[in-house]
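Action item from last meeting closed. Structure (301 res):
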């Protein structure tokens, strides 16, 4: 059996949380993936995973093996990169991910300038509003907006972004203008169904030690920020989005920012990558190139 392949599959299962999710990510049939894990356990003579109908749990042997496998695969990756000259010359393929609209508006222009300066580096830019798994999806770097839960990632701060509540003038003419977060209860709202904030918005109440969770009445759930902004422009309801997602509509007078005194602190914007000893030059060059240019974009401050 190919041990490196089996290690990679095991890591994908652990990172994705299930065999089916790992199979989809790897584009490997579920029976094939299951057999590879079973064969690996047979080779080692021990159970690595405890499988129930609800979840997968690593055994003690599995925990130790996964940690070792991760180190081995990282060392193998570094060896291949070094052999290809990626630690001595800025070249090769660079995979970057960013939120859809933010990526199109602010990351893509930086990437195109970068390509002009580094002709031996090719970039694959993945635009997605879900947090792509850097290790499992083989992504080199990511632009993330918001707090970073994974402390194993190395982050470079490039700015911050307001989270704003806004509504169309026509909607405000029908329902009035909210003065406090409590007033949101009487408004229809537009929310993004992939976010935890689909039915609750966080707001800051002056004098309070913690953020207030404001229940909302979503009339419309959508899957992207662009759709939420467009629906808000059409008067469907209030929405809460990052400022860059509604900047054009606000500038055109199609949306008004509301309850500014109750906004939460701006969310950090970071360029992140997995922790590793030595960065390939293609990653170091992009980090040094992109970070100051993203900071210079006025919308980020």
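Sequence:
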């Amino acid at each position: 059996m190919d041990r490196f392949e089996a290690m990679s599959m095991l890591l994908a299962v652990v990172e994705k949380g299930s065999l089916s999710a790992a199979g989809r990510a790897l584009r490997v049939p579920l029976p094939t993936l299951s057999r590879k894990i079973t064969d690996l356990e047979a080779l080692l003579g021990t159970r690595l995973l405890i499988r129930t109908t609800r979840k997968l749990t690593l055994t003690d042997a599995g925990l130790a093996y996964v940690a070792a496998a991760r180190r081995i695969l990282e060392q193998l990756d570094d060896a291949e990169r070094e052999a290809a000259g990626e630690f001595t010359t800025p070249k090769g393929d660079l995979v970057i991910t960013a939120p859809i609209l933010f990526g199109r508006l602010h990351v893509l222009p930086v990437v195109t300038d970068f390509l002009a300066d580094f002709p031996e580096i090719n970039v694959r830019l993945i635009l997605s509003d879900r947090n792509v798994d850097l290790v499992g999806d083989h992504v080199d770097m990511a632009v993330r907006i918001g707090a970073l839960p994974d402390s194993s990632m190395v982050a470079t701060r490039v700015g911050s972004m307001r989270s704003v509540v806004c509504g169309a003038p026509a909607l405000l003419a029908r329902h009035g203008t909210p003065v406090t977060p409590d007033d949101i209860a009487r408004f229809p709202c537009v929310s993004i169904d992939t976010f935890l904030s689909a039915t609750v918005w966080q707001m800051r109440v002056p004098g309070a030690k913690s953020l207030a969770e404001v229940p909302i009445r979503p009339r419309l759930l959508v899957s992207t920020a662009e759709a939420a902004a467009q629906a808000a422009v059409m008067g469907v309801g209030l929405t809460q989005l990052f400022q860059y997602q509604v900047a054009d509509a606000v500038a055109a007078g199609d949306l008004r920012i509301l309850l500014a005194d109750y906004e939460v602190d701006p969310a950090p914007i970071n360029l992140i990558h997995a922790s590793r000893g030595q960065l390939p030059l293609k990653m170091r060059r992009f980090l040094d190139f992109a970070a100051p240019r993203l900071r210079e974009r006025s919308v980020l401050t």
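Note appended to the action item: The chain is about 40% helix and 25% strand.
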